[in-house]
Amino acid sequence: MAFVAALLIVLVMGDFASTFFYHVPQHLWFTLHLRTHHDRKRSYWDHAVLSTNFEVLLDGFLGAVPYLVVAALVWRISWPGALLGLALGQLHVWWRHTTELGWRTPDWARALARPLQIVLPEDHDGHHRNPDIEFGDIFRFYDAPARALLAKLAPTSRRTRNAAARRAKQRVPAQA
Ligand SMILES: [Zn+2]
Ligand SMILES: [Zn+2]
């Protein structure tokens, strides 16, 4: 019981913390994750899974810190559960980036994952194609609240600031 609890807490709370304290802030205010995870010029299998580029590794590490923190917190409940949670989380990172390799989720896995709201590689591929959708790395139930938070904080985002700066530049006639 303690084993299963620790395992689930690492995955569910880890994804929660990683989504809301790392992934969403990165999309709003920073560039590291967008330059690495959402670089359309590079294969995301390469940069999410195989790359040894420092920035790519840093993005992966920072995204994993929330899981590590949660694992440390539940360590006393069951350390094997916490460890297996981390291992499954890492397996899911690899698995959710396999779409690009031409893998298709078999129907039985889809039937199993859907009711549990587990992110399929096909879902995560959607996030790579359109960075405004499919939040939640492991669980899809974080997508709606993540998008709501993004929408609420949009006025403070880099995107909005940059657009405002561009508009301001256009309004001021260039001085010859
Ligand atoms: Zn990804
Ligand atoms: Zn992203």
Unreliable residue runs? none
User: Structural class per helix/strand content?
Assistant: mainly alpha
> What share of residues are in beta strands?
under 5%
Radius of gyration: 18 Å
Total domains, how many?
1
SSE topology string: HHHHHHHHH
Number of strands: 0
Largest sheet: none
Bound molecules: zinc ion
Q: Your description of this structure?
A:
The protein is mainly alpha-helical and 176 residues long. It has one domain (2-161). The chain is built from nine helices and no strands. It has helices spanning 2-29, 32-36, 44-50, 54-74, 79-96, 107-116, 121-129, 143-153, 158-171. It is globular, with a radius of gyration of 18 Å. The termini are far apart. The structure holds zinc ion (2 copies). One zinc ion binds at residues 23, 27, 33, 37-38, 127, 131.
Name the features:
about 180 residues, mainly alpha, globular, binds zinc ion
Brief account:
With 176 residues, the protein is mainly α. It has helices at residues 2-29, 32-36, 44-50, 54-74, 79-96, 107-116, 121-129, 143-153, 158-171.
